[in-house]
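We modelled the chain as a single entity of 269 amino acids. Its sequence is:
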Amino acid sequence: MSIAIQAITSLRQTYLRIPTHMAGELRRAEEFIQLAVMAAEHCLAPIRELDGGRTGIYLGTAFGPMRTNFAVLADLIHQQPISPTLFSHSVFNAVCGYIARRHHIYGPNLTLTSYAWPFFRALESAWLALQDQVIDHAVVLQAETYAPLLSDARHAMQPQECCHWPAGAVVWLLGRHGSCRLKEIDIEEIPCPAEARLQRRESITIPAGSARQTIAGPESTSFRQEVHHPLAAAESLSTRLQNNDLPSSWQVKADYGRVTMTFRHQEMM
């Protein structure tokens, strides 16, 4: 059974804006939480039919609230009092509580960490839950922020090729009804050197004949794109789907494995 992708949002930290009516709620939240909450807000705001008890939240992240993690560790090392708020926000799944409370979601709540495919691991878990009819909707998200220490480590490993990693978030809403449908998702993770996970050399491909339908039929040329940061694959696919450019097959490969997904378009009655 295929599952519908009902809404999609991508948000970079550069474009993060907190509206006045949410300023009080997020005034003590750090950047990881702010990014994820506002991306979810943009994604879910137009949706009115969510049943909170039948909706789940599935977060995948590679580095989580990394700046906050290091701030807590710094206080600990220097034997300074640790703020309870700062400590609670250093926990990866704290953001899910913010989203659940704001949107009255009290179904399954799962946080996954993966240095390889965090968004797609979360997507797979949500897709299976919908397949098994455990839930009717799923909020699937990846959010990433980075500490200076990570940038230093990456630059030391590859000084000539160290590209900027933008902080941001991607959110999808899955459900049962909709024309853009995810048929299958298959994920493989393989062992690799740590350097490969920090280099993030990923290759996205859409095989010839799998690209979007045109009046003359399926496009005959293949598509290939190289991406280099932890949110890039999820952002690239999100942009394609938002543009109604629905491939029948989509794949991303790297030294640490691959993700293969198949889609179909279903006409709405």
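As a brief sanity check on the tokenised model: The mean pLDDT is 90. The chain has one domain: 3-265.
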